[in-house]
Design brief:
The complex is a heterodimer.
Chain A: E1 3-6, H1 15-27, E2 32-35, H2 48-60, E3 64-68, H3 76-86, E4 92-95, H4 98-106, E5 111-113, H5 122-131, E6 133-137, H6 144-151, H7 154-157, E7 164-178, H8 182-186, E8 205-208, E9 214-219, E10 222-230, E11 244-247, H9 254-265
Parallel strand pairs in A: 1-2, 1-11, 2-3, 3-4, 4-5, 5-6, 6-7, 7-11
Antiparallel strand pairs in A: 7-10, 8-9, 9-10
Helix pairs in contact in A: 3-4
Chain B: E1 2-6, H1 10-18, E2 23-27, H2 44-56, E3 60-65, H3 74-87, E4 91-94, H4 97-106, E5 111-114, H5 123-133, E6 137-139, H6 146-153, E7 159-167, E8 171-176, H7 178-183, H8 187-190, E9 199-204, E10 207-212, E11 215-220, E12 236-238, E13 241-243, E14 251-253, H9 258-263, E15 268-271, H10 278-297, H11 306-314, E16 321-322
Helix pairs in contact in B: 1-2, 1-10, 2-3
Classes of the chains: A alpha/beta, B alpha/beta.
């Protein structure tokens, strides 16, 4: 059966909102929950200790909890924080940078490889398994066909049972990371005087072209897809290929959608993709495209 | 400190050598390198000729095989490594763990540099690539500040190479899927950002529109300098305000940072632009050769010559340059 996972919160939400969200997650159908700040080290509403406390509660609620690490690590301080995540001593870590893979491999600890780890072929995937990878979240730009080609390769077939495959199936896609904070820039603030203004935008700031098409969403140093990615109509095509489906937290409706994905994975008929949601990547097209296929 | 210059063709390579490059980097035709443009890069014979010419002049040849291998076409990446080594490459510039492992095992004697496309921005990542694949040099992404570069230089045991001049990539390289989001093709999956085949120019009532895969990137009034529609450099709207939401069309120029980079022991400065003309490569190389020579001659008294800056600005996107992420004000 397809497991349901809740990705780390990519936006900067006030402490109480995060708390409320995880109270609901604890009661939801989620199997796996990823916790941690993966976008900007300046966001400190929740610190590692808060995440760890939350992790214990979620574990008591029966969830498989994973700590997600920072994606773009720039300073020695970022690296120290990464070490603290990796050395937590209890929970599996999602490595979002090769630096994390290096530390976890050295410590002999199992890990989840996040979508920003560049794994595009079976030879790389096999190495990741050798380094200790137990679950693989494939890069967001890959298609079902690309995934299937990797998994059916002889280099993978004999080790396929040793790791799980996870796909980001719902939410705004993280597409790029920069030294520059685009949210601060949108308010004409320099990054070092950002005043953590991204807390005002719980779903980021949309960017439109001059013809009114929503192309991107600014989320601090991260740029996301302008539209929400949604593979609800594609769930049946994930059978025997995908082990876990990730929903990425949005301010509204995340867990309702998670429940729909769960129902769809059981073969029940559910409300389909919303108008405006995109699914191009899964169909080997531009991510921004909407493909009207069902099944796969 | 080594001056590493780009060449997308043999004429560009000869020009870079003539103007004083210490080393040249090239790519093979096809999608094994991150400048996969029509008519660009070298075929097998071209690569051999390039190696012969570079070695005759006592310089070094780096070959970029820095995209990520496709699941059904692994042989192309293996073959690229084989051909580069056979042709006499001194250095392979690699990003994919699979290609790194292959090169390290098959040709341990050929130097391996970690491409910027591998996005190694921290000591833990660099140490990993050194330990596992024997990488001896790392090309740093254009996202680090001078202070961060400096901290790394004092921590890691590999050599470091930085981008000194050319197109400014504002996202961490190897971690940007904006191009595939709009076109299906990205540097990681196809070796090019905002590929030319998706670009359309349309003039409407005196206004020039640039589009990528049909999506409007920018509009230019008469007389405005119309840049290539790299998707992060268009004028977009955020909450009704129209501006370069991500970045202006501008180029990176670090002439003013050269003494600091040198002081921190940065091993090589890299000029971006394998897609550029021989004339461009020649002019840029000449300026940087002069700058490095002046620096090495008397580091204390190094000053940026005004002529250098104006030459480089004239060759830059939008005729403007920035030191980018190296300085916190850019961020």
């Amino acid at each position: 059966m397809l497991k349901m996972s809740v990705g780390p919160i990519l936006y900067f939400w006030p402490k109480e909102q995060v708390q409320r969200f995880y109270t609901q997650v604890a009661e939801s159908e989620a199997d796996i929950v990823y916790l941690g700040e993966t976008v900007c080290p300046k966001r400190r509403e929740w610190r590692l200790d808060d995440y760890l406390a939350q992790a214990h509660q979620l574990r008591e609620a029966g969830k498989d909890v994973v700590l997600s690490t920072m994606t773009l690590l720039e300073s020695p301080a970022d690296l120290r924080e990464l070490r603290r995540y990796c050395d937590n001593g209890e929970f599996t870590v999602e490595a979002n940078d090769v630096g994390a893979i290096g530390l976890l491999r050295e410590a002999g600890l199992p890990f989840v490889a996040g979508a920003a780890i560049n794994c595009y072929n079976p030879q790389t995937l096999r190495q990741l398994v050798q380094f200790g990878m137990q679950r693989w979240l494939m890069p967001v730009e890959l298609s079902r066909e690309w995934l299937s080609q990797i998994l059916s390769h002889p280099d993978i077939e004999d080790i396929r049972h040793t790791f799980e495959v996870e796909v980001l199936g719902f939410g705004h896609l993280p597409l790029a990371w920069s030294a520059r904070c685009f949210t601060a820039r949108s308010e004409n603030r320099p990054k070092d005087q950002c005043d953590l203004c991204c807390i005002k935008y719980p779903s980021g700031r949309p960017v439109y072209n001059q013809e009114g098409e929503r192309l991107f969403v600014l989320n601090g140093i991260q740029t996301q897809s302008g539209d929400r990615y949604n593979l609800i109509n594609e769930v049946s095509g994930m059978n025997r290929l995908v082990d876990a489906l990730r929903v990425s937290p949005e301010p509204e409706g995340t867990l309702e959608w998670l429940a729909r994905f769960r129902a769809a994975s059981r073969g029940e008929s559910v409300e389909g993709r919303s108008p405006g949601d995109v699914n191009g990547y899964w169909h080997k097209m531009a991510g921004i495209v909407q493909v009207e296929a069902t099944g796969r | 400190m080594e001056l590493l210059c780009p060449a997308g063709s043999l004429p560009a390579l000869k020009m870079a050598l003539k103007e004083g490059a210490d080393a040249i980097y090239v790519g093979l035709r096809g999608d094994t390198n991150a400048r996969h443009f029509a008519g660009l890069n070298l075929d097998t014979q071209g690569l051999r000729d390039a190696a012969r010419e570079v070695h005759r002049q006592g310089r070094r040849l780096h070959v970029a095989i820095n995209t990520f291998a496709h699941p059904t076409d692994w042989e192309s990446w293996q073959l690229a490594v084989d051909e580069a080594v056979k042709a006499g490459a001194d250095v392979l510039i690699l990003a994919d763990m699979a290609v790194l492992a292959y090169a390290a095992e098959r040709y341990p004697e050929v130097e391996r540099h970690l491409s910027v496309q591998a996005s190694a921005t921290n000591a833990a990542a660099i140490e990993f690539y050194r330990q596992v694949y024997g990488v001896t040099r790392v090309v740093l992404p254009r996202v680090l500040s001078m202070q961060q570069v400096s901290a790394l230089a004092h921590t890691v045991s590999t050599e470091l190479e930085v981008f000194a001049f050319g197109s400014l990539c504002i996202m961490a390289e190897g971690r940007c899927y904006l191009s595939s989001y709009m076109t299906g093709e990205s540097p990681n999956n196809s070796g090019a950002c905002s590929p030319a085949k998706f670009v359309r120019w349309e003039e409407k009532r005196g206004v020039l529109e640039s589009r990528l895969n049909g999506y409007l990137i920018d509009r230019f009034a008469g007389g405005e300098n119309a840049g290539y529609p790299t998707l992060c450099k268009g004028r977009f709207e955020v909450d009704g305000e129209r501006y370069h939401a991500l970045e202006e069309p501008t180029s990176l120029n670090t002439l003013s940072l050269l003494p600091e980079l040198y002081g921190d022991g940065i091993k090589a400065v890299k000029i971006e632009g394998r897609q550029r003309s021989p004339a461009y490569v020649g002019q840029v190389t000449r300026v940087w050769r002069q700058a490095i020579d002046r620096l090495l001659n008397d580091p204390e008294r190094y000053r940026v010559n005004r002529d250098w800056d104006s030459t480089l600005a004239g060759l830059s996107e939008g005729h403007q340059t920035t030191i980018g992420a190296y300085h916190r004000s850019w961020r």
